[in-house]
Amino acid sequence: MRGNIINDKILSTRILIATFLFQFLFSGIMAQQAKDWGQHFKISGFVKSNYWLDTRKVDGSRDDLFLYYPKKPNLDANNEDINTGVNSNYSAINTRLALTILGPDLLGAKVNGYIESDYTGVTNTDVNGLRLRHAYILIKWQKNELMLGQYWHPMFVPDVFPEVLAFNTGAPFQPFIRNPLISYKHHFGNLTLQLALIMQRDNSSDGPIGRNSIYMQEAGIPNSHLQLMYKAGNHVVGAAFDHKVIQPMSVSPANYKTNELLSSASGMLYWKFQKDLLTLQFKSILGQNLTEHLMLGGYAVAKRNLFTKVDTYTPTNHLFLWGGAHYGDKYRMSLFVGYAKNLGTSDENIGVYYAKGSDVEQLFRISPSFCYRTGPLRLAAELELTSAYFGTPDMHGRVKQTSPVNNTRLLLVAAYMFKN
What we know:
By secondary structure, the chain is mainly β. Helix content is 10%, strand content 55%.
């Protein structure tokens, strides 16, 4: 037994040495190729620590660093709410590392590559695991851009998104999702037209086997997106339309093949004003089935065949609004306000949901924050007050007999930025 252990250690040591030698030789080859191709690399990112305290248990992910809203009451045998009480935690999992690859012009365009990762994992069981955030090739001509790879879903809008300290970045009022995509942009002076075809990977639709990208894959139709953005002076204004199709089930529990699809659509408007040290932002979304965006919503079973167990579906409808105000540089003050309203399902349903917050009628959030910046160091604090109105959905998906549940989160953040 002892001999086996020693042999295993020797083998592991040899593998480790071989791995380092391979990496050394491979890095040398790549460095020479990069030199031959006229490429150079830039490394950037940050080390970030989060410390937080909640006034009750929350519905969240990644050890609750990512907060959706407070958990609804859960009564014990003495009629006391199990979900009350202070909770706290620390985390550094959204520490980030990025690599930018810059090279010569190709195809009459500037061609760059970008890779970015953090340690939040792909699922809750994979916390501390390395996760791919972005990985894309960007080809830029004078008036056209083509992106191939994985990046923010176009509904995120990097030009207009909440400036909050929280890891949720304004979700569930704001889309928070990255996707494999093909994105094309054409610039008409101050106007930019974007067309994108998008698939799902880590952020996936909900369904009979849980959250899974297979629903869009088996539908065979990419998520399509059209967006128009106007940028001039101090203003950014935009509008977008998004459409997706999924196939929640390919075979019913009674073993009958089904090709039933669910089609959903969303519209979006946004605005940003920036002058000197002041920034004002606003976004509104009227959306269907936005579960994969880490927002409220999804879909329900409209009808079920009693013999074949084949389902048809109806999407949920939600209104999302958020606004932000930010002022300062070295000493920066911010305020985020969010509101979400459940408008029910498009058709009657039988009470079977594949959705986030199907029993939430509306959500409110207000988050004031303060950040001190000195060189690469950031020290900040944020107070996040979230109120969820829970009730019972009727056959139209509208939530009735609601009562509010509140949570206050105190978040302290320290971040150290770096780049070469």
